[in-house]
């Protein structure tokens, strides 16, 4: 008994070291923590001339090619004019014509929109990790107009659809098409800068002529908020917890790089479930920022991810129970209380898996993005080791998926391949995590 107590104490002390940065065996180089030792709550504004839209690296893409290639609609330059996506071009033109009809009395036509996008061309191109020299200026501006207007009109029509105000439209004639479009619009390679969508939204709504500077500023802010709200509502069916987004808890007035970044921000901790503050220093000795950072990185390089949290079956053998929280909700809402580890139900299907992988790769390519899903993937990778662990989570209602247990094990393990991540943010949102880790059985002594 005394030995077990000592083991629990050692595990608890080990689990609350100042820098819970994690590394697993298939990692490359460490990720440096922020100066304050933890992530910010939301995506921070990007510096000017910083790439925000990338082509997914080949070594990541080969893990699940389908997750990163749009299957229904091409948006932006990465998949411009791909033959397999040409069928949707007719719908783009139909949506553009619909928008132009609505603003026919405002001295605004397609060429006016193209001219407006040419003014933003330099700023728009700077958002991409490639130069796309093969796309001429006029073609680039027209592509942005067609793709951007398609998204804006899709969001407007979707809002009417949710309100039962939409007459018949082929896009909404089936349940599958909006989901397929939403999945593609949340792919990192399939993005337009959000400032483009906000500009097109403003240009294609009434009341923009002959206004004062103050009125223009007000309309610009309204466009940011309106586009953000419409987009979050449209993407609701693709949330991994199938929860309804409470826009009052989201920072819809802020600017984000693109739709994927906006969607990612909606998972940030709310006022109801704020993250605990970072731990206080254990000594009064003053250290420089660089010294603290070097110490953190040293721990990071030696901290092995797999086995840090024991598997569901192992935890169950020590009396830890798993339970799905009632109702749908944010999948990051995880708690450990009285030897019960509670999760929101995680819905795993073809579309949500693609969304999850793109959220992960977005976090990898953007140092300003909090590592919500990288942390979640690592936690799941530890809890799920064998089909028996998946069976426990399924029986508890924590995982819902139509694929088999072995397939789910392989999927969850694949999520952490080639990842760089920081466990700080997620762990600060799980009260009592240290006791949960300490309850894992001690490894057998070496012979």
Automatic annotation (TrEMBL):
Pfam families: DUF247
InterPro entries: DUF247_pln
Highest rank taxon of the organism: Eukaryota
Biased composition (Low complexity): 8-23, 282-291
Location of the region described as Disordered in the Swiss-Prot/TrEMBL record: 1-44, 270-291
Composition bias, Basic and acidic residues: 25-44
Biased composition, class Pro residues, residue ranges: 272-281
Name of protein: Uncharacterized protein
Taxonomy of the source species: Eukaryota, Viridiplantae, Streptophyta, Embryophyta, Tracheophyta
